């Protein structure tokens, strides 16, 4: 028998507190001076059958609300006491963006759904008490709405974005003057703004500027954060974002690996397990992306040098390859384990790309076949498909079969249609460019950044 869902307010559900269901403001929210928000019933869970069906079926949640901005559907609007917490929630469009984040936008940030999504149960309560996080969250929600539906809320969205930027400058000033307790708000805000830029296919480098700011903040912030759940959430969000940076750049990343190791150690030393922000069940694999990228490029450079590859570099590649190959996902359901296997396979492909003629290597062909087999099992409707851009772009140069290329293009095309993110569209263009025969296939681990140069884009592959 299915579990009966509570009809309590959003904040009581997030805080796991009993709600007396008094509207518009329940007793618990009034007592704790919190925004009392009432959401619609969540959509029925979708059955995940086969990858083939996933290619044909559009996300039901997206289809449900196509006409939302025109009518401002009352079932998604929040019944709030706006003057008690935030005057802006008295405005229907702002109120709607808050509700849309809870109902849909938060899901685009995590492979976990519903109550298990940390952007719902950790970030939203934080936004209820922090104006800077509140503004960034609404701006992100508006960008996702624009990507998936229309630009009807653009003015409201960018108004909140401007307020988030202004608040960011003010809060940074307070932080510099030893208000270190504001660090968690700053890190959460900057990471949200970074995700916003990436998902709208930022080509001006704004995402990288946000990331540089974040790298300056995390050390002090993590040291002064005494909430283990919040610390674990921020550490994993930061780890995921930072791990993919080397794949987007050709030039060496200054101390990037040290920062990744710091985030990973913070996650390991935390008293709660990884929240599954985007890393899912495989934070170790995300941590390894930067190291595998650097080793593969260094070995590729040595192979093209007259002296040939050094024993030291070959051994380093072998050790890393063995570590990745022997890794097993822990404490994961079947879907999370499969997406972890996709990343594991892509990392092995990345390490083999360093050798001349790697695409003809028997081991490489087997890895490509394994990855495509995994894709055939993972339905496009699964929330895990939001993190497929990096592994597919990494493996693409080694996919020789036109049939396999066509399948990957079809599969990822369905992912693009599901999420409608700008960075996903750019990844789709990368795949097409790599397979167009412009000699990019011969450039091994440098293929992705050089293809990005050809396209004129500069973004994080996530």
TrEMBL record:
Location(s), subcellular: Nucleus
Keyword field contains Nucleus: yes
Species assigned in the record: Aspergillus lentulus
GO molecular function terms noted in the UniProt entry: DNA-binding transcription factor activity, RNA polymerase II-specific; transcription cis-regulatory region binding; zinc ion binding
Residue span of region Disordered: 43-63
Domain Zn(2)-C6 fungal-type residues, every copy: 8-38
One protein family per Pfam: Fungal_trans_2
GO annotation, biological process: positive regulation of transcription by RNA polymerase II
Basic residues compositional bias, start-end: 46-63
Protein name as annotated: Zn(2)-C6 fungal-type domain-containing protein
Gene Ontology CC annotations of this record: nucleus
Lineage top rank: taxon: Eukaryota
Keyword set, alphabetical order: DNA-binding, Nucleus, Transcription, Transcription regulation
């Amino acid at each position: 028998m299915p579990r009966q869902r509570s009809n309590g307010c959003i904040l009581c559900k997030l805080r796991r507190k009993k709600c007396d269901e008094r509207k518009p403001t329940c007793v618990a929210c009034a007592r704790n001076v919190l925004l009392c928000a009432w959401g619609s019933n969540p959509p029925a869970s979708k059955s995940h059958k086969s990858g083939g069906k996933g290619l044909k079926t559009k996300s039901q949640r997206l289809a449900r609300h196509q006409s939302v901005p025109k009518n401002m559907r009352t079932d998604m609007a929040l019944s709030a006491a706006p003057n008690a917490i935030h005057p802006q929630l008295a405005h229907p469009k702002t109120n709607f963006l808050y509700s849309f984040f809870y109902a849909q936008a938060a899901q685009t940030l995590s492979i976990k759904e519903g109550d298990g999504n940390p952007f719902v149960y950790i970030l939203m309560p934080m936004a209820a008490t922090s104006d800077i996080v509140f503004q960034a969250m609404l701006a992100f929600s508006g960008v996702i709405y624009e990507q998936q539906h229309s630009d009807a809320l653009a003015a409201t969205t960018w108004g909140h974005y401007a307020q988030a930027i202004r608040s960011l400058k003010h809060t940074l000033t307070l932080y510099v003057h030893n208000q270190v307790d504001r660090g968690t708000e700053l890190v959460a805000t900057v990471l949200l703004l970074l995700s916003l830029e990436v998902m709208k296919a930022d080509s001006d480098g704004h995402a990288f500027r946000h990331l540089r700011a974040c790298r300056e903040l995390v050390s002090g912030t993590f040291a002064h954060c005494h909430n283990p759940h919040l610390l674990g959430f921020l550490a994993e969000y930061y780890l995921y974002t930072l791990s993919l940076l080397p794949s987007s750049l050709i030039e060496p990343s200054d101390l990037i690996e040290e920062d990744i190791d710091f985030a990973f150690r913070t996650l390991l030393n935390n008293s709660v397990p990884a929240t599954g922000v985007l890393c899912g069940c495989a934070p170790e694999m995300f941590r390894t992306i930067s190291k595998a990228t650097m080793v593969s490029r260094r070995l590729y450079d040595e192979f093209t040098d007259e002296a040939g590859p050094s024993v030291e570099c070959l051994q380093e590649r072998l050790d890393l390859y063995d570590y990745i190959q022997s890794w097993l996902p822990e404490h994961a359901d079947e879907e999370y384990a499969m997406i972890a296997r996709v990343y594991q396979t892509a990392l092995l492909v990345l390490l083999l790309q360093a050798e001349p003629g790697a695409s003809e290597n028997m081991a490489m062909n087997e890895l490509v076949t394994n990855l495509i087999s995994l894709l055939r099992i993972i339905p496009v409707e699964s929330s895990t498909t939001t993190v497929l851009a990096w592994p597919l772009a990494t493996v693409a140069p080694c996919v020789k079969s036109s049939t396999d290329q066509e399948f990957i293009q079809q599969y990822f095309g369905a992912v693009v249609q599901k999420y409608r993110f700008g960075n996903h569209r750019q990844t789709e263009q990368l795949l097409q460019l790599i397979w167009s025969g412009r000699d990019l296939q011969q450039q091994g681990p440098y293929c992705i950044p050089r293809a990005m140069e050809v396209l004129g884009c500069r973004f994080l592959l996530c």
